[in-house]
Every structure is written in C-alpha cells, then in structure tokens.
Known about the structure:
single chain; 299 residues; mainly alpha; 0% strand
Amino acid sequence: MDWLVVLLSLGAALAFAISTNLKHSSAAQVPYVSRLRVGAVARFVTATLSHRLWLAGIVTDAIGLSLQVLALHLGALAVVQPLLISGLLFSLLLRRRQGRPVTGAEVRWALVLTGCLVGFLSLAGTNPGAGGDGPDRLPAVVAAAAGVGLALACLVLAHRRRPAADAAALIGVAVGVVYAATAALLKGLTDRAVHGPLVALTSWQLYTVVVVGAIGLFLSQLAFQAGPLTASLPAIATVDPLLSIVVGVLVYDEHIHRGPWSGLGLVVLMALLGASVIQLGKVDTDRPVPQRVSGGRPR
C-alpha cells in the first residue's frame, strides 16, 4: 500500500507540473490585472476561462487531482503533499524536452531534492493516522482561521509591493495556503465518501472544497501573471507541503516519524527540501515574452 501511495503521488505531481506549465503560458496571454478592480478582474477571468492553454491545464489538473485524492485516501496528508514537490523535478524534465538548457546547478539540486524525498519517505512512512473519528475540530478551526489570515495578509502586501518578484512570491504564499487547505478538505471528503455517495454529496467538505479550489485557481493565475515563475513556484511548492504536515499532525493526528532521532532528521530534510525547491524554482529563468493583449498591457 505504501508504494501505491508513492506512485499515485508522483503521478499527481507529474500532472500538476504539466498543468503549471500550460497555465503559466496562458497567464501571459490574457488581459493584465494591475489592480484587483471589478472590471479588470472580470476581463481577466473571462479571457482565462476561454483560453485553450488554461483549459488544457484544467484537464491535466483533473487527472492530477484524481490521483491526489486516491493518494490522500490511502496515505497520510503529511506524506502525500511533500511528495508533490517532485513536480519540480518533472518541470526540469519538461524544460529539457522543450529544448531549453539545463544547468549543472539544477541537476545537482535535483539530485538533492530526490535524496531528500527518499529520506523523507524512509523516516515518515505512510500511516494515515491513529484517529478514527475524523479531524479534530478545535485545531481545524484554529488552522483555518490562521490560514485565512495569512493568505489575506499576503494578498494585501502583494497589492502594495511594486517589484514583480515580491508580489508574485507573496501571492504564491497565499496559493500555497489555499492548496494545503484544499488537500486537507479533500482528505476529509474522501474519508466520508467511503460511507457512500449520499454521505459525500451532503457533506460540507464537498462544497467547501469547490469554493476553495476555485479560489486557488484564480490566485495561481494571478501569481503566474504578477511576476516570474522563479518567484511564485518556490513559494507555492514550499508553503503547501509544510502547512500540510502541520495540518496532518495537529488536525488528523498523523504520526510522521519513527524513533527518537527521526524528528530531527525530518527537520533537516525539510530544510534541504526548501533550499532545493527555491533553486529548482528557476526552471523557467525568465517570464514569458511580454505580449500586448486586448484589454491589458505589456508586462
């Protein structure tokens, strides 16, 4: 079962890497959103919803989401989400396949990331958690409130920051928070779905995950458009798994270490993971070539 969880998570990571590439390209070809005004946002959303690259990305997202849901049902939230970091490795491979150069530094950091993921799996295991009564409500409410506050603070700061990279990174942090919340909701939903489709259809998690997922899609496109992928992608790829680990331990009572020294080892591995994520965020070293789009402006 452990290897099935790993394979499902890696498959989801590959699908999400392809989707990110497609949606990032789409974000450069739709009207630019300089301020979160109703008219600008409406033009942005309308153009995005009909853009072929974004639609292709959504189809790929659906495949990745299906694999992620299965992995979350069978495995621990605190293990599945960190495995999705491997999507950066797949981004590196996609870059090579597209004929773009891959530097020696990127290869070295890719090896570091791979080693960290293997080490993380050996220490963390894939036991979903000891509790059988679902998530703990009080920690879940506290985590949700803290997540909303952090995401809103990042969006407000991004609105005030002029450097494109700073704004993109701040929105990326907000996206990471939303993605972690989505994964937590999906795990809760799959745990209820095993009792039958009627239980799933009448659960609040289903409708909440739809709303939160839509917010995540919107914010990710804003992050891709706000600045270089080198700023937004590392923020998303770091915040999502780290918050998922916290939520998994506090809300779902997951146990992610074995032995007295494994906790320290996991901290070191996550630090190395964060460093390698930041470096591999340079998969696309430049923003897409600026294009003048109807209703927007060159970037």
